[in-house]
Amino acid sequence: MDDVATTYVARHDPNGSDAAPIDDLLAGFPSDPAVLDVGCGDGARTLANLTAGSVGLDVSRRGLAPAGEIRGLEDY
After folding, report:
1. What pLDDT, in 10s, does the model give residues 34-75?
2. Distances (CA, A) of 49 to 53, 74, 75
3. Which GO terms describe its biological process (predicted)?
């Protein structure tokens, strides 16, 4: 699983075209919703596109490393 996460992070553009559906999804929620992003991968979508109270969850610790680094977390 961690090998897949490493490849994904290396090839993934956090501002890519697959981020557009998130705006459509959020339009149906009340303002400032807390969202649980299950299978968030590197957390780029959660951090870049969701509200501050949102949480990203993934089975790959290596995949979550970029999100932890961005947030300055030692344990994630």
Report:
1. 888 888 877 777 777 777 788 888 888 777 777 777 777 666
2. 12, 23, 23
3. methylation
Phi, psi of 40 (to 5 degrees): -75, -10
Beta strands in 1-76 (DSSP E): 36-38, 55-57
pLDDT in tens, 8-32: 767 766 666 666 777 787 888 888 8
Q: Which domain holds residue 27?
A: 2-71
Spatial CA neighbour of 40 closest among 74, 76, 28: 76
Q: Among residues 48, 55, 19, which one has the least CA distance to residue 34? A: 55
User: Half-sphere exposure of 48 toward its Cβ, with a 13 Å CA cutoff?
Assistant: 15
Q: Total domain count for the chain?
A: 1
Residue 50 lies in a domain: yes
